[in-house]
């Protein structure tokens, strides 16, 4: 499963890079056209905003996978091995609850906004909220793998979850 998640993370990194490139081309091209030729790319702002939202949520998936999200490890490190493991498991379970909240809210908003068209592109506004669904499903999968690793691995592997470099077991 770790191999699949690592490959998935690399695909996400490539997708994010492509989205960022499209955003740069659209925004830079729009600036050049506005100031140089008194025209512009009409869909530039709307497409860039949608891509930015997706880049943010997809980047959050990568941060969760690489264990590079914000955390206060100094409290967890104060415990013994069993306490560290328990704290990490409780933290992952709480994050699973947050994933459920994000999923249910994003699903509701996607359903509501599917028939709503964006003003310029005419694209369904449901695509904006679908990024929350993508994040919560992928995040839950990562967290479930983390829980399995935390519950079944020796303490040396568990301590890697506290490593500041974000390396995975």
From TrEMBL:
<dbReference type="InterPro" id="IPR007387">
    <property type="entry name" value="TRAP_DctQ"/>
</dbReference>
<feature type="transmembrane region" description="Helical">
    <location>
        <begin position="86"/>
        <end position="107"/>
    </location>
</feature>
<comment type="subunit">
    <text>The complex comprises the extracytoplasmic solute receptor protein and the two transmembrane proteins.</text>
</comment>
<keyword id="KW-0813">Transport</keyword>
<feature type="domain" description="Tripartite ATP-independent periplasmic transporters DctQ component">
    <location>
        <begin position="23"/>
        <end position="151"/>
    </location>
</feature>
<keyword id="KW-0812">Transmembrane</keyword>
<keyword id="KW-0997">Cell inner membrane</keyword>
<keyword id="KW-0472">Membrane</keyword>
<feature type="transmembrane region" description="Helical">
    <location>
        <begin position="12"/>
        <end position="35"/>
    </location>
</feature>
<feature type="transmembrane region" description="Helical">
    <location>
        <begin position="127"/>
        <end position="151"/>
    </location>
</feature>
<keyword id="KW-1133">Transmembrane helix</keyword>
<comment type="similarity">
    <text>Belongs to the TRAP transporter small permease family.</text>
</comment>
<comment type="function">
    <text>Part of the tripartite ATP-independent periplasmic (TRAP) transport system.</text>
</comment>
<protein>
    <recommendedName>
        <fullName>TRAP transporter small permease protein</fullName>
    </recommendedName>
</protein>
<dbReference type="InterPro" id="IPR055348">
    <property type="entry name" value="DctQ"/>
</dbReference>
<keyword id="KW-1003">Cell membrane</keyword>
<feature type="transmembrane region" description="Helical">
    <location>
        <begin position="47"/>
        <end position="65"/>
    </location>
</feature>
<dbReference type="Pfam" id="PF04290">
    <property type="entry name" value="DctQ"/>
</dbReference>
